[in-house]
Amino acid sequence: MTEPITAGSAVHPARAEPPAAQTRRLRAEGLTVSFRLPDATVRAVSGADFEVRPGRCLALVGESGCGKSVLAHALLGLLPGNAEVSGRVLLEQDGQELELVGAPQAVLARRVRGRSIGLIPQSPATHLTPVRTARAQLEEALRELGAARPRERADELAERHGLHPADLDRYPHELSGGMAQRVANAMALAGDPWLLLADEPTSGLDRPLVDRAMAALRELCDEGRAVLLITHDLRAAERVADDVAVMYAGRLVEAGPAGKVLHRPRHPYAAGLAAARPDRAFVPIPGMPPELTRLPDGCAFAPRCSAAGAACAVPPPTTGGVACHHPLPEQDARGGGGSPDRDPLESRRA
Ligand SMILES: Nc1ncnc2c1ncn2[C@@H]1O[C@H](COP(=O)(O)OP(=O)(O)OP(=O)(O)O)[C@@H](O)[C@H]1O
Ligand code: NI
């Protein structure tokens, strides 16, 4: 079921979930990723719990370097050899459960990557090989997926994603940012995956193109796919996300319905991010995130948190989706909640 829609949040009308929705789900429990370096360990993702389902978009937000891309790549088994992954990631589909953590590369290649889970990479333009046309790369992806008529299928995918088939005959440097984006979408969807990981799909695009890309992602959700959107653009997240998870120094510090997390955050970091929005108060959070090689034992945000106290020296428990010893008080959404006077972070946008 969809969570109740709160006023003032991104409003997405309730949708009928497709029949497959019951049998498709990705659930991460305690997902942890570290990179071993010769003289240190980078703790990129620490104990992440989240779930993605068809028809819903989960936006993973957080500052640069907090572990968002590493988390996405961990789901696909696309991490380098010095990565150590623990925890569980269960891919439920067609009445079966597949554990992705530690799954053999052959299984991930044959059953998961591109088929169940598609990746729209960070900076699509640079992800494409410069010396081959978009068509050559898309058709190759289709052949790997066993498509019967790759050329026709490539044309279909191009049109489906707002490209003219002739656009596919261009080399990556001949594509505009928006076109490269659409080629990346077409590649990610070539194998008809039900779950899409979109890693900063709009970095470098200007606002109208961002809005278009977000509308395209929303459509993919509405047609029954699941989307995990990685972004540091809270306004983009607000446009498409049903749920939002806020990441800080490798940890999910607050997760829940988008309207709640973006407009009535309870974790001081999530509140700080909301206040730092360029379209809001634009007040930056003082200080810098910690080095992931030297995370404190307790709350990693405590050094930047004005409310931190002695309790914060031990790791905070996660209660109601919020990992904090002293969360901001919950604000009652009933009776006009989300209206400007009830939302301390909302300085009405134009
Ligand atoms: N192969 C690796 N070896 C060591 N450290 C790595 C490796 N890959 C990533 N890291 C580190 O993991 C941390 C998380 O990186 P990640 O790319 O996930 O950040 P991000 O949240 O996606 O940031 P951005 O918004 O800039 O894309 C960073 O400190 C990064 O330097
Ligand atoms: Ni990233």
Total individual domains: 3
Determine the strand fraction and express it as a percent band.
15-25%
How many DSSP H or I helices? 10
Q: How many extended strands?
A: 12
Q: What does the largest sheet look like?
A: 6 strands, mixed
CATH homologous superfamily name of the largest domain?
P-loop containing nucleotide triphosphate hydrolases
CA distance, first residue to last residue: 32 Å
Radius of gyration using CA atoms only: 20 Å
Shape-level CATH architecture of the largest domain: 3-Layer(aba) Sandwich
**Name of the top-level CATH class of the largest domain:** Alpha Beta
Return residue spans where pLDDT drops below 50 for at least 5 consecutive residues: 1-11, 333-350
Structural class computed from helices and strand pairing: alpha/beta
Shape: globular
Kindly state the percentage of residues in helix. 25-40%
Fill in the CATH topology of the largest domain: Rossmann fold
User: Looking across the biggest beta sheet, what order are the strands in?
Assistant: 6-7-8-3-9-10
Q: How confident is the prediction overall: mean pLDDT?
A: 88
- Element order, helices and strands? EEEHEEHEHHHHEHEHEEHHEE
Ligands and ions found: adenosine-5'-triphosphate, nickel (II) ion
Give a written overview of the molecule.
This protein is an alpha/beta fold. The protein folds into three domains: about 20-130 and about 190-255, P-loop containing nucleotide triphosphate hydrolases (Rossmann fold, 3-Layer(aba) Sandwich), CATH 3.40.50; about 130-185, no CATH class; about 270-340, no CATH class. Helix content is about 25%, strand content about 20%. It has helices at about 70-75, 105-110, 125, 135-145, 150-160, 175-190, 205-220, 235-240, 260-265, 270-275; strands at about 25-35, 40-50, 55-60, 85-95, 95-100, 115-120, 195-200, 225-230, 245-250, 250-255, 320, 320-325. A six-stranded mixed sheet has the order 6-7-8-3-9-10, sandwiched between helices. Helix 5 (about 150-160) crosses helix 6 and helix 7 (about 205-220) packs parallel to helix 8 (about 235-240). The radius of gyration is 20 Å and the shape is globular. The two termini are about 30 Å apart. The model is unreliable at about 1-10 and about 335-350 (pLDDT under 50). The protein binds adenosine-5'-triphosphate and nickel (II) ion. The site of nickel (II) ion has 5 residues, from helix 1.
